[in-house]
């Protein structure tokens, strides 16, 4: 096995796979209120096709895979895909990003299939705000139950991702931080990224320096460098009395492109070397046309070679072709 590296010598070992463009929520920063035109099912990669791509990627050096969406748990049979991916010997880590609404129903099955850990996106602890942000009448309690069930079946860690939106949920930073003390939550605060299609066109994020200032009433955050740190860009801290942690993900105020280790596969089979660039390579048609494993690997290498040095959100460049829900965030 050879390691995958891009033209800036970044090692690429992490593949995010979007398994569907469908979602049961319509989060205000991610989707338009009436949703997106859905792709016909025939355009979506089958689990067998995803498996072949993952296998080729693993042979090149991908060792970590995350399943995302849309909402991955609305696609039926997800545990089957996890089971298939878990059979690829060199894949060490399979994780999931979900909105949590269906998690309590599937957590045990996902765990036995080989899922190691899960990130739950949750932006508020208040039911009325939950309905406002997700533009749905779903129940916040279902997500909270999903988090508890995931923990109880041994998915570890369960991380809670909160997109911090000025004037909408930034008044809840302290409430989430308290959960790291009282309930051992691992919370990550994420800067809101602009997304044209979702109607977030201006840079309206709360910088990490501000977030930290608002957490001061709980004490001094100490850097936390063990265990919880994953494959991603978060920097972790904790309060002295807490067993849970706080992470900050700062795509805008302190971008982390220099250490980016990711590739993304869309549900219709496009490989994207960067979330925030429109560059992508189609793998679906070649795959359906009977491409050899070697040629598939060559396409993956090509995509890696095209990985840009960094994104340009702060300079106002927002990709126009796909929403985050269509790439997987
Ligand atoms: N439906 C799943 C979920 O919500 O976790 C997985 C897909 S979602 C697109 C993946 C992640 O992207 C979520 O954590 C979501 O909060 C994040 N995301 C979507 N739009 C975003 C934006 N404009 N800024 C920051 N994060 C965003
Ligand atoms: Fe759906 Fe996730 Fe986007 Fe919310 S963030 S609309 S749950 S894909």
SSE topology sketch:
Elements: E1 14-18, H1 47-60, E2 64-68, H2 78-86, E3 93-98, H3 103-113, E4 117-121, H4 127-134, H5 140-152, E5 158-164, H6 173-182, E6 186-191, H7 208-215, E7 222-223, E8 235-238, E9 245-249, E10 262-265, E11 270-272, E12 281-282, H8 284-288, H9 293-305, H10 324-327
Parallel strand pairs: 1-2, 1-10, 2-3, 3-4, 4-5, 5-6, 6-9
Antiparallel strand pairs: 7-8, 8-9, 10-11, 11-12
Iron/sulfur cluster binds next to loops.
Keywords:
329 residues; alpha/beta; TIM Barrel; twelve-stranded mixed β-sheet; 10 helices; 12 strands; globular; binds S-adenosylmethionine; binds iron/sulfur cluster
Describe what this molecule looks like in 3D.
With 329 residues, the chain is α/β, with parallel strands linked by helices. The protein has a single domain (14-326), classed as Aldolase class I (TIM Barrel, Alpha-Beta Barrel), CATH 3.20.20.70. The chain has ten helices and twelve strands. The protein has a twelve-stranded mixed β-sheet. The longest helix is centred in the N-terminal third of the chain and has 14 residues, at 47-60. The protein is globular. It starts with 13 loop residues before the first strand and ends with a helix. The model has no long low-confidence stretch (mean pLDDT 93). Bound molecules: S-adenosylmethionine and iron/sulfur cluster (SF4). The site of iron/sulfur cluster (SF4) has 12 residues, from loops.
């Amino acid at each position: 096995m050879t390691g995958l590296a891009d033209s800036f010598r970044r090692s690429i070992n992490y593949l995010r796979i979007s398994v569907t463009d469908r979602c049961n929520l319509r989060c205000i920063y991610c989707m338009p209120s009436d949703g997106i035109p859905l792709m016909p099912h025939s355009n979506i990669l089958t689990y067998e096709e995803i498996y072949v791509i993952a296998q080729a990627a693993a042979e090149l050096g991908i060792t970590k895979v995350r399943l995302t969406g849309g909402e991955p748990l609305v696609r039926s049979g997800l545990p089957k895909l996890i089971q298939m991916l878990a059979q690829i010997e060199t894949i060490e880590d399979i994780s999931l990003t979900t909105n949590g609404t269906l998690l309590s129903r599937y957590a045990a099955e996902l765990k036995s299939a080989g899922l190691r850990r899960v990130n739950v996106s949750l932006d508020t602890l208040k039911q009325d705000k939950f309905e406002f942000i997700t533009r749905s009448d779903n129940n916040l309690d279902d997500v909270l139950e999903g988090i508890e069930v995931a923990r109880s079946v041994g998915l570890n860690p369960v991380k809670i991702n909160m997109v911090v939106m000025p004037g909408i949920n930034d008044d809840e930073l302290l409430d989430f931080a308290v959960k790291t003390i009282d309930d051992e939550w691992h919370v990550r605060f994420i800067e809101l990224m602009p997304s044209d299609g979702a109607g977030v066109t201006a840079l309206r994020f709360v910088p990490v320096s501000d977030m930290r200032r608002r957490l001061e009433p709980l004490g001094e955050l100490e850097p936390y460098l063990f265990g919880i740190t994953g494959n991603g860009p978060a920097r972790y801290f904790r309060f002295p009395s807490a067993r849970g942690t706080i992470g900050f993900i700062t795509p805008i105020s302190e971008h982390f492109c220099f250490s980016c280790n990711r590739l993304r596969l869309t549900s219709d089979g496009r490989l994207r070397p960067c979330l925030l660039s429109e560059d992508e390579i189609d793998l679906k048609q070649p795959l359906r046309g009977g491409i050899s494993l070697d040629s598939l690997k060559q396409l993956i290498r090509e995509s890696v070679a095209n990985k840009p040095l960094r994104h340009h959100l702060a300079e106002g460049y927002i990709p126009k072709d796909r929403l985050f829900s269509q790439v997987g965030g």
